[in-house]
Amino acid sequence: ALLEQVDAALSDPVTAARFVVPASDGAAMAWLNAERVIESSELHDDQFSVTVSWSAKQRAQFLKRFETIEA
Fold first, then answer.
1. pLDDT at residue 48 above 90?
2. Arithmetic mean of pLDDT over the chain
3. CA 37, CA 56: separation in Å to the nearest integer?
4. What residues have CB less than 8 Å from 55, skipping those under 6 apart?
5. pLDDT of 43 strictly over 70
6. Does residue 58 have a pLDDT over 70?
7. What pLDDT, on the 0 to 100 scale, is given for residue 12?
8. CB-based contact 19:38 (threshold 8 Å)
9. In this structure, are residues 23 and 46 in contact, taking their beta carbons and an 8 Å threshold?
10. 28 pairs with which residues across the strands?
11. Are 57 and 41 contacting, i.e. CB atoms less than 8 angstroms apart?
12. Alpha-carbon gap, residue 36 to 43, rounded angstroms
């Protein structure tokens, strides 16, 4: 089981991305926090500027769930 987890982690490399999340979209920010991918976030007016480090799988899950956010 542990070997499978290590293999999965190594086969899905992590990349960095920076994008904007509306401050009103608490669900998106909660998802990012739950996945522990946020490197930094800054609130400007009514939106968060977010920098994340995530796998392609995490990115795909996020984009499927939060279709209005361009990440």
1. yes
2. 92
3. 12
4. 12, 13, 14, 15
5. yes
6. yes
7. 79
8. no
9. yes
10. none
11. no
12. 18
Any idea which residue has 């499978």 for tokens? 4
Q: b/e for 38-71, b at 16 or more Cβ within 10 A?
A: eeeeeeeeeebebebebbeebeeebeeebeeeeb
Res 11: pLDDT = 74
Distance CA 68, CA 8 (A): 28
Helix (H, G, I), strand (E, B) or coil at 44: strand
Q: Which amino acid is at 14?
A: V
Length of the chain: 71
Determine the Cα angle at 44 with ends 39 and 45, to 5°.
150
List strand residue ranges (DSSP E) for the chain, in order.
14-22, 38-44, 47-55
- The pTM of this model reads 0.82
pLDDT at 8: 67
Residue 8's SS3 state is helix
